[in-house]
Amino acid sequence: MILYLHGFDATSLGNHEKMRQLQFIDDDVRLLSYSTQHPKNDMQYLLNEVVKQIKLSDDKSPLIIGVGLGAYWAERIGFLTGLRSVLINPNLRPELTMNGRIDRPEEYADIANKCVHEFRSKNKAMCILSRHDEVMDNLQSYDVLSDYYDIIWDEHQSHKFSALGVHLPVIKSFKDQG
């Protein structure tokens, strides 16, 4: 089972396309949609939904994958549930990058303050970063995450990362390690 978390643009057709591509790894790909507007509610909802989906599956190595804002949640929810997570162009500081676009951005800072100290050192995640991300500064993301996770650089994709194909074998291998 692969749980897919969309980014801020929840209605993008690219989400469906990425889910179709992920079906080459696992037939069971499930979209977990969330509001993107209310961080504390989104966190509680996603945590409950992931726990529910795990109980409904007999997969011994489920995986959670997120893009952009979805990667922010995949990292945290993956840690809290023990799932391996794949972070694609993660939005690591939504309280700064999403300010003016969401309600209560300060809730992201509050969530970060309540995270387990050094949770990344205890997490099982990998990260794929676009060199040509027009939204995030992925060199900063690399600086934050490279001490904790394997980082794969993509030379062609933009922030929304429409084509996962070249990375599917690595994602599958990572999933199978779980």
Brief summary of the model shown:
The protein is of the alpha/beta class.
What does it look like?
The protein is an alpha/beta fold and 178 residues long. It has a single domain, classed as Alpha/Beta hydrolase fold, catalytic domain (Rossmann fold), CATH 3.40.50.1820. The chain is built from eight helices and six strands, in the order βαβαβαβαααβαβα. It has helices at 13-22, 39-55, 69-81, 94-97, 106-114, 119-122, 138-145, 168-176, and strands spanning 2-5, 29-31, 63-67, 84-88, 125-130, 150-154. Strands 2-1-3-4-5-6 form a six-stranded parallel beta sheet, sandwiched between helices. α3 links the parallel β3 (63-67) and β4. The N and C termini lie close together (12 Å).
Supply the key terms.
single chain, 178 residues, alpha/beta, Rossmann fold, six-stranded parallel sheet, 8 helices, 42% helix, 16% strand, AB_hydrolase_fold, hydrolase activity, UPF0227/Esterase_YqiA
Major sheet description:
6 strands, parallel
Question: Which fold name corresponds to the CATH topology?
Answer: Rossmann fold
In the CATH scheme, the class would be Alpha Beta
Gross morphology is globular
Q: Going across the major beta sheet, what is the strand order?
A: 2-1-3-4-5-6
Mean pLDDT over the full residue set: 92
Global Rg: 15 Å
| Helix fraction bin | 40-55%
Poorly predicted runs are none
Number of helices, counting only DSSP H or I runs of 4 residues or more: 8
CATH homology-level superfamily: Alpha/Beta hydrolase fold, catalytic domain
User: What is the rounded distance between the termini?
Assistant: 12 Å
Beta content? 15-25%
Order of helices and strands: EHEHEHEHHHEHEH
Number of strands: 6
GO molecular function, one term: hydrolase activity
Protein name: Alpha/beta hydrolase
InterPro entries: AB_hydrolase_fold, UPF0227/Esterase_YqiA
Keywords: Hydrolase
